[in-house]
Amino acid sequence: MISREDALKLVEEHVQNKNLRKHMLAVEAVMRDLAVHYGEDADLWGLAGLLHDLDYDQTANDFPKHGLITAEILKAHDVPESAVQAIKSHAGHFPRQSRMDQALYAADPVTGLVVAAALMHPSRKLRNVTVEFIERRYREKRFAAGANREQIQSCEEMGMSLHDFIALSLHAMQSIDKELGF
Fold this sequence. Notes:
By secondary structure, the protein is mainly α.
């Protein structure tokens, strides 16, 4: 399997936007913690999270190709098919079949929700955000409007409550707050 170091090189090569890179790191952290929670391979799940938007710059104006170009790029690297499948399914190209598919689909938008909460928090520090703060803001339609609530709530497909999913995601992102710049 491709090393994290080599995966990071791919991210640096293909993703120019530093905020998108931070998003990919955040999804990686959430995916790693979800893998641990479910007794799965944290390196594999983290890899899917880290690489899931590898083609975003290329597909921003051609979204139907999102995920598919990433799959093509990853053919030249030692990325397990299960991670590639999760990447393609997060973009809606295939049904979510595995728990990793479900996790990536839900983890992608929840990171935006957590970042928005940190930016709205009086301290503007991720480490000071609480689950309760996010849950209060979550109910506001205009708060983090780009964070698809239906997609976030799909965490229930993998047997996790919304509260627990937000808590796990927040903790995962707080563990890398320095890398995320919050």
